[in-house]
Amino acid sequence: MSGLMLVAILAGLGGLGSVLTEVAWWFAAGGFVAIVLLAAAVVRGIARHRLWGTLAGILAGVFSLTLFFAPANAILGVLPTFDTFGDLQKLQNAGLDSIATQQVPADAVTGIVYLVCLGAVGIAVAMDLLAFAVRAPALTGIPLLVLLLVPGLVVANLADAFFFVLTAAAWLAILLVRSRPAGRRVAVWIGASALVAALLLPIALPRVDSSVADSGGGSSLSTGINPIITLGDDLRRGDEKLAISYTTTEQGGEYLRLAALDDFTGSTWKPSATTIDPANDIGAIGPVPGLEAGVAALSVTSTVSVANILTRWLPVPYAPRSVDGVIGAWAWDADALSIRTDRSNARNQQYEVHSLQIAPTIEQLVAAGTTVAPGLERYLVVPDDMSPIVATTAAQVVGTAATNYDKAIALQGYFTGGLFTYSEDAPVKQGYDGSGAGVLAAFLAAKSGYCVHFSSAMASMARTLGIPARVAVGFTPGSPVKTEGSELPEYRVTTHDLHAWPELYFSGIGWVRFEPTPGRGIAPAFAPLSVDDPATPNVDESKPVPAPTSSSAAIATAAPAPTITDAPATADPAAAPDAAPPTPPSPWVFIVPIAVLLLLPFLVRAFRKQRRIGQLDAGSALAGWEELRDTADDLGLRTSDARTPRQLSADLAAHLDDDGAAALARLRASLESEAFAVPAGGALPEADDLRAVLRALRRDAGLAKRIAAALLPRSLFATWLPAASIVEPD
Amino acid sequence: MRGRLSFVESLPTNLESDRDVAPGQVMVHDEFYAKTRAVLRAMETVIDGKRDAVEMALTVLLAEGHLLIEDVPGVGKTMLARALARSVDCSVSRIQFTPDLLPSDITGVSVYSQADRQFEFKPGPVFANIVIGDEINRASPKTQSALLESMEEGQVTVDGRSYALATPFIVVATQNPIEMEGTYPLPEAQRDRFMARISMGYPDPDAELAMLRTRATKSPLHDLQPVVTTSELADMIATARGVYASVAVEQYAVAIAQATREDREIRLGASPRATLQLLRAARARAALDGREFVLPDDIDALAIPVLGHRLIAARRAGSSSALSGGSIPDVISRIVASTPVPLGTHSS
Fold it and tell me: How far apart are CA A74 and CA A84, in angstroms?
């Protein structure tokens, strides 16, 4: 029994394989589950009361978790102290942060492994409690269901169908082993219903990362996971929802930044800071990295009102100096100057941001040369597995450009020069959606994508050229709305204004925004798209900027145009985000559960038959008789539990040959002596007799009925047929 | 020594295993079987082609119950009763019930003895092992009660003194279902005292033809010799009583009785006494069939005879239902056909 529970949990944990990388965590969690269940089983074997077993399981779980994850402050390494719980708390926070910042599949860092193990131990204890202490083995499906739902909610596909079926099978086995005979039918059906629910729920429910806004009318943006991952989905989603409205002293609105993704060591861009330093009070934000005196920096005050969207990153203009009026524990990050929380969220918040608009002159940027200040090396790292095409293309594009600024302008021009088209769907259709190293080559070849691709491509290329670069995620300025009686226009930012852009570092100036996405956003004044820089080797001379289509003409003007965000989207059908239908899910998402559903009756029936034959071998004629009755029922012969064994024998005799009839007579006799005679023995029933009768019945029934009986056994549904009011002799 | 139940051909061999005889089972099965077959054979020389009725009569006899035979006149009710009584060598008395029959005509009277100068009890016809009550519904309720009290109590009380009746004591009563002048239908409470009610039915053409030939010269009843003595009958009754009824069978009987109480077509359901007698009759039937244990089939077969005359159909509430079963047998058949047969062996 405990073994079955172990198998069930291990299989359920296997389902997490689709959201976590590697497998070490699986063995770790499996080990903890084994320890808990073993301890519980051993103690239950010794102790008088069955609750002791569960208690032992809990203690074993706590001790082993302590030993493995936080032995430092524990007595003898296993007995947890208060400090131990502090250590575990830290580990847990680290794990939560890690989950919040990683994309799927996430790297199984220690914190995540700890959380998985903690969950597994909890599930093992819960199952043990339900199966043994409460004696309701059917309910063990609930913890298992929770376990199975986790990957199902994060990635709504059935890549883990194998683990799912395995878990379900183990659980059915638990039911069959533990249930009392009278309760088995009920148990099996509860189980089957729960399985169906578990199959359908992930399909029906919104995924965590898809930020679908149906429930409560809210949108969620990057509630936990790396914000860039959901960006494409948010853009492609048909319904445009108000995300933010703000007023600002800055003419033309502002980019509102959520986060900066500076870590490109793994498979994708992600934020490097996983912990929040609560000392970084947002009332006074630390120095702007790299900014030196002499560079023009306009002080801007913005009043931001976040609508019904969920995010743990506060949308603020770069570079924020202070934020007032925000509720909850928020903190700033020294490198990225992004503002985060791990408890609260930005939904419906209103706050005032004082920020600096850094406006270097082109001369200052050129003067920055190619020097990279020490300490910025990590902004030059690219993954080893990144395609060399990225670097060679970058080198080709910049040609002989001398300074970092010239190179950056060349890169920006390369993307916006008309060679590339904006499309939110092309990457999905052609399978290179995302910001990772693997998709860059495909993007550069297809020359079609959206902000995620442009920004990550430009940042990656800049890194290969020795320019410190990172990807920022946030919102374009949105569109102004005329508000009466107010001198400042109100800007309305929707979910379709979600954006990603590269930020490049220039010595003495700091981080500077570029805009390589064609038709989106506003190019900064120091990097105008219309500049036909002589250093730029004009990769596409035939289509010089201003951009080729009339729709993007507005972009060409260096002056900030408040309405340009929407312009290309509406004018260029190929790039229209609204026209983009959601990607249809893989057909397997439907086929697999339907196939499982269709086969479920057959499987349950086969289970039941095997179990009964086993009981028959053990001497229970009743089990054999029930099997006979159900088989006859399946084959469409009229049976009823109101028929006595003799009556049923007479009913079936017409369908049997002589051998079958003789076997049936023997079977009936052993049943009668078992059920009705003096309980003192009598002939034991023979499984062979049962098989002979069943064979004869099936032979008589014909192929069509046999197939129908196998796939849709009537006997399984007998409980629901009106005539069958079963009085269980219990 | 232990008997083999080889006479039932349909029973498979594994039922023939030797078992300890249940307590109270005083007669070995060979002997029991031989005696019952002898009685059946003897009775069938008189009653042609009515095997079911004959077996049912013998079942009630072995279950030590009272039998009510109900049918139209002339189909052999009295003949069956007399054949049953005749095949057992025991005291038999016959009472012809008439409207002017008095209770004392049944129970007996105390008469003043001149010689002894005291009252002396003259036992009535009820003091016999088998009492045949002919056309019982012709007597007044008061007289009916006199017989029916003795049926239940096993004793007669006259002038404050109780006199025990003979054992075994079995009443076989007949009645006409057709409402006729001067009949007093038996009230429910009194019908409840009979273990079973059977009806004869008309004989089929062959049996009727055979009857014409055999009865041409003399009544076959004259040739009928007793085949069982009183003590043997007592032993046979004890054997039948010792038949094992499993918990499952008991549950089945109770379930059927409960169902009659809850059925919408039945106004008065089976009494607990009916359940008791159903199981007792089932034991006797099992014994008669050569089994050492009761099967649900026994309950099925006996449900209508044992329960039929006790139930009152709801729709017939206004009319006198004493003489006719009406739709009651159909209702019972339906209940029997829909009550699940418990096959569980565990008793809890």
Answer: 6
- Partner-chain contact A723 B19, CB within 8 Å: no
Residues A132, A264 within the same domain: no
Q: How far apart are CA B116 and CA A460, in angstroms?
A: 138
ipTM over 0.90: no
The pLDDT, as a whole number, for residue A728 is: 33
**Does the beta-carbon distance from B344 to A729 stay under 8 Å?**
yes
Domain, as residue range, for A702: 588-717
Asked if residue B87 lies in contact with residue B309, where contact means CB atoms within 8 angstroms, the answer is no
**pLDDT at A55 exceeding the cut of 70:** yes
Number of domains within chain A? 4
Residues of A in contact with B244 (CB under 8 A): 676-678
pLDDT tens column, A381-430: 888 878 888 888 888 888 888 888 888 888 888 888 888 888 877 777 77
Contacts of B305 (CB under 8 A, 6+ apart): B56, B196, B197, B198, B281
The rounded mean pLDDT for chain A is: 74
Using CA of residue A379, residue A383, residue A388, residue A390, what is the dihedral sign?
Answer: negative
The pLDDT of residue A314: 85
- Structural domains of chain B, with CATH: 1-7+23-201+225-242 (3.40.50.300), 244-343 (1.10.8.80)
Q: Which residues contact A400 (CB under 8 A, 6 or more apart)?
A: A535, A537
Distance CA B291, CA A140 (A): 47
Minimum Cα–Cα distance from B14: chain A residue: A683
Residues A423 and A535 in one domain: yes
Query: A with B: how many residue pairs have Cβ under 8 Å apart?
Result: 105
**Co-location of A64 and A141 in the same domain:** yes
Whether A218 maps to a domain, the answer reads no
- Cα B266 from Cα B303, distance rounded (Å): 15
Do residues A435 and A232 make contact, with C-beta atoms less than 8 angstroms apart?
Answer: no
Rg from Cα positions in chain B: 21
d(CA A390, CA A387): 6
Report strand pairing: A242-248 vs A297-306: antiparallel
Q: How far apart are the C-alpha atoms of B107 and A531, rounded to whole Å?
A: 135
> Can you tell me the mean pLDDT for A632-659?
84
Q: Do B340 and A671 lie within an 8 Å CB cutoff?
A: no
Q: Residue B299: helix, strand or coil by DSSP?
A: helix
Query: Quick one: DSSP state of residue A131?
Result: I
The count of residues in chain B is 348
- What's the CA gap between B312 and A290, in Å, rounded? 103
Q: Do B297 and A677 touch (CB under 8 A)?
A: no
Q: How far is A131 from chain B (nearest CA, A)?
A: 23
CB contact under 8 A, A642 and B338: yes
Q: Which residues of A touch B293 (CB under 8 A)?
A: 672-673, 676-678
- Would you place residue A282 in the very low, low, confident or very high pLDDT band (cuts 50, 70, 90)? confident
Residue A550: what pLDDT? 39
| Integer angstrom CA distances of residue B114 from A123, B111, B120 | 100, 9, 10
Residue of A185, A638, A676 to mutate for B, most B C-beta atoms under 10 A: A676
Q: In this predicted structure, what is the pLDDT of residue A484?
A: 65
Q: Cβ of A642 and B248 within 8 Å?
A: no
Which chain A residues contact residue B340 at CB under 8 A?
640-642, 725-727
Give the residue on B whose Cα is nearest the Cα of A664.
Answer: B12
Domain end among A555, A578, A600 = A555
How confident is the model over A104-114, as pLDDT tens digits? 566 667 778 88
CA distance A98 to A485: 47
**Cα B337 to Cα A585: distance, rounded to the nearest angstrom:** 53
Residue B329 has pLDDT above 60, yes or no: yes
Under DSSP, the state recorded for A313 is B
CB B140 within 8 A of CB B99: yes
